[in-house]
Amino acid sequence: MAFFDNPVIPGFSPDPSICRVGDDYYVATSSFEYVPGVPIRHSRDLVHWRLIGHALDRPSQLALPDTAPASTGVYAPTLRHHDGLFWLITTVVAGAGNVLVTAENPAGPWSDPVPIAIPGIDPSLSWDEDGTCWCVYSNDGIRAVRIDPKSGELLGEPVPMWSGTGLQYPEGPHLYRIDGWWYLLLSEGGTERGHALSIARARTLPGPFEPHPANPVLSHRSTSHPVQNTGHADLVEAHDGTWWMVLLGTRPRGDTPMYHGMGRETFLVPVRWEDGWPLPGPLELRAQATRLTPHPWPREPDRDDFDSPALAPDWVSLRRQDPEAVRLGERPGHLVLHARADSLDTPGALFVGRRQRDADCTARTLVDLADGGRGGLAVRLDEAHHYEVEVSDGTVAAIARIGPLRHAVAEHPVPDGPLTLRIDVTTSGVLPPTVTSRGTGPDGPPPPGLRSGGPDTLRLGYETADGGFEILAELDGRYLTTEVAGGFTGRVFGLYATRGSAAFDWFELRSA
Predict the structure, then answer these.
(1) Which one, of 374, 402, 378, lies nearest residue 388 by Cα?
(2) Res 433: pLDDT
(3) C-alpha atoms less than 13 angstroms from C-alpha of 278 in its C-beta half-sphere
C-alpha cells in the first residue's frame, strides 16, 4: 500500500481505542446516547475497517432513561486484549457509571457489565509483569488505582499520576508498558480547537513521571490544518514492527469559526521513536503507509431494503432499543415504526438512523403512512438541532428545529400513498478550510465564486412521479454542528414516527 485516505473511520466515531491480536486489529469508539453502544470494528491493515458488532448491545448491558440529555451515555471506551480475553472499560454518563465487560470474540457476545467504583471518567486498563491490573482515569487530573478486573474491586486507594502540562481537562489517559518504561499518553486542552496530545514516562508505577520535553507531541491548534480538534489517541505496534496511533479529529469548513457536522472522526498517523519517546505524526488526509499490506473490506451497503429479520449493525436508536416500536416483519419488506412521542424535540421520540459518512451525500426513503400516521426522514444532531422532511395528513413539510425555534419552512400537498423523501448534503460553494470570508482587504468580500457561511447546504424535499426532486427548503448546515449546538456527537440520518405508525420500504444513504 502506497497511500491511504484519512479519516480511516469517517463520520461520528470519536475516542478511538485500539488493540492488536496477531495480524488483526480492533477499534472501539464512543457512542454517547445511541444504542447499541460502543461500535467494534475489525481491520487487517489499520486502514480498512468493518463494523463487526457492539460491546453493549442488549438492555442488561446498557439502557439510558429517555430523560438522559443528548451527549450523555457511553464515553471513551478502552479496548484491550489480555490472557486470551478482550476487555473493554468505559463510562456510562447518566447511567451505570464506570463498567467493564469481557468477551472471547470481539464480535460478541460480551459479558454483563462489572461496575468499577472510581469517581471519574475515561478509564483505561493496563497490566504489569506480575499480572496486576491498573486502572487510570480522569478526575481532577489523571489518577490510577489497582483493581481486580474480574470483580471490579479496588485494591487500594487511587493515587495521582501525571496530569499533563497544565492545560485544561486532562483526560483520555492510556498507560503502556514498553521496553522497561511506563508511558502515559493523555489529551488536554479540551476536545475543541485547543485539543492536544501529551506524553510522559516513568520506570515504576505510580511514578514520578517525566514529561516529554516537546509536549504537546501532537496538536493542530492555532493552525490552518484541515484537520482540527486532534486528540484522544491510542498507540499500537503493527505486526510488521511499525508503530501507529489512532486519534480523533474533525474536518471543519465554512466561514469563521468554521464548522463540522459529521462529528469527531477516527484518523491514523504513523509514530516514530526518538531517544526512547514515541512521536506521532504528521497527520495527513492523503498519507503514506509503509510496509502495510492492504486488506480492504466491502463497505457497508448504502441501501437497506428491510428484507432481513434484524436491522444491520450500523443502525442505531436513541437511548434504548425498543422492539415493540421498531418492527421488521410486521409488514413484509418494510421497517414499521410506532410513535412514542409527538416530536423529535422530545427525548423519548422514536428515531433510528445511520451515521453520516460522506461530506456530500444523499439520504432517501420510501414511506407509507397508516391512517393518521406522521413521520419521515430526518438528520439529527440532538433534540434541539435537527431538520426533517415529514409527511402527515396529505402534506409533506420541511421542518427545521434550531435551538429554541421550530419552524415548518415549506409545505406541499401530496397524494395519498407511498412517497420518496430525500435530503441532499452538498459542500459545493462552501469556503474551503484554508480560506476565510474576509477576502483580500480587512473587510473585503469573499473570494469570487465562494459562499461564506456554514460547512454545507442541506436540501430537503421529495421525489416526484417522473423522478424529479422537488426541493422544499435549502438550509445552512452550520446549525447542525457542535460549534453551534454543543455536545460531542455528529449527524445521524434516519427514520422516525411521531404519531401512529409509519412503514418504510427502503432506506438509502450514499455518497453524492
Answers:
(1) 378
(2) 54
(3) 27
